[in-house]
Each structure stands twice: as structure tokens, then as C-alpha cells.
From TrEMBL:
InterPro entries registered for this protein in UniProt: Iojap/RsfS/C7orf30, NT_sf
GO CC terms, sorted: cytoplasm
Protein name according to UniProt: Ribosomal silencing factor RsfS
Any single biological process term in GO: cytosolic ribosome assembly
Organism encoding this protein: Nocardioides exalbidus
Position of the signal peptide: none
Keywords assigned by UniProt, alphabetized: Cytoplasm, Repressor, Translation regulation
Gene3D superfamilies: Beta Polymerase, domain 2
Known function: Functions as a ribosomal silencing factor. Interacts with ribosomal protein uL14 (rplN), blocking formation of intersubunit bridge B8. Prevents association of the 30S and 50S ribosomal subunits and the formation of functional ribosomes, thus repressing translation.
Main subcellular location: cytoplasm
Gene name as annotated: rsfS
GO MF entry, a single one: ribosomal large subunit binding
Length: 119
């Protein structure tokens, strides 16, 4: 199984929104073969809590404009690791220290990367 076209569209919107707010290391994984609950993960990081918040706000705004509604949002208060669950995709915006420590790229390295065209 692979991520749906709609999920890939949402990934592109979320990744571009994160990139527009200067997120670092923006990646996306197709996790549909490993997880039944979502098709893709988008990972992005920033070097401080304020930047994490700005990235999260931009991702939420752009996904809302695309008609996507979040199922849940976790970690926004702390600003170190924010998870945005949209059902078909899950967006992780992490402080760079959390990104390094939890190493989600390594955890999901057996899943295919989704190519991103960020402008």
C-alpha cells in the first residue's frame, strides 16, 4: 500500500509551509505500509521554541486553506515537539535537540521517503 494522492497533496502543503517559515531538515516518509492509522509523516525542526510555534502556525494555516481539519494537536504549549494529526498525515515539528535525541528519521528509515519540491 502507498500513501493516497490526497495524503501526498497534504504532505506537499505542510512541507512547503514549514519550509516557508525556515524549518530545517524538512522530510516526509510514506508510513502507510507500517501503520494503519496514517499514510505519511512530515518532519521539520527549528532551533528555538518560538520558531517551532511559527512553523506550526503556518502549517495549520496552509492546511486549513487546503480544506484539511486537524484531528488533534499535542505539545504546542511546551513548543519543543508539536504533533499535528490530520488523519492521513501527521506533522512533527521538533526543536532540533528533540529531533536529534528521538531520531525519528532513523526509526522510520525503512519507510520510503516522499520526494519534496520545496521552493
Amino acid at each position: 500500500m502507498t500513501a493516497t494522492d490526497h495524503a501526498l497533496d497534504l504532505v506537499a502543503v505542510a512541507a512547503q509551509a514549514a519550509h516557508d517559515k525556515k524549518a530545517e531538515q524538512v522530510l516526509a516518509f510514506d508510513v502507510s505500509d507500517q501503520l494503519a492509522i496514517t499514510d505519511a509523516f512530515v518532519l521539520a525542526s527549528a532551533n528555538n521554541e518560538r520558531a517551532v510555534g511559527a512553523i506550526v502556525d503556518e502549517v495549520e494555516d496552509k492546511l486549513r486553506e487546503s480544506g484539511a481539519k486537524p484531528i488533534r494537536r499535542e505539545g504546542h504549549k511546551e513548543g519543543r515537539w508539536v504533533l499535528l494529526d490530520y488523519g492521513e498525515i501527521v506533522v512533527h515539528v521538533q526543536h532540533e535537540e528533540e529531533r536529534s535525541f528521538y531520531a525519528l528519521e532513523r526509526l522510520w528509515s525503512d519507510c520510503p521517503l516522499i520526494p519534496l519540491t520545496l521552493t
